[in-house]
Amino acid sequence: MISAVRADAFADAPLSRLVVRKAVMHDIAPILQLINSYAANVKMDVAKFKSCIASDKYKAAIDKDIAEGMAAGVNGTPSFVLGRVVDGKLVGVRMVGAMPYEQFDAKIQEMLAQAAAKN
Question: What is the pLDDT of residue 23?
Answer without folding.
Answer: 46
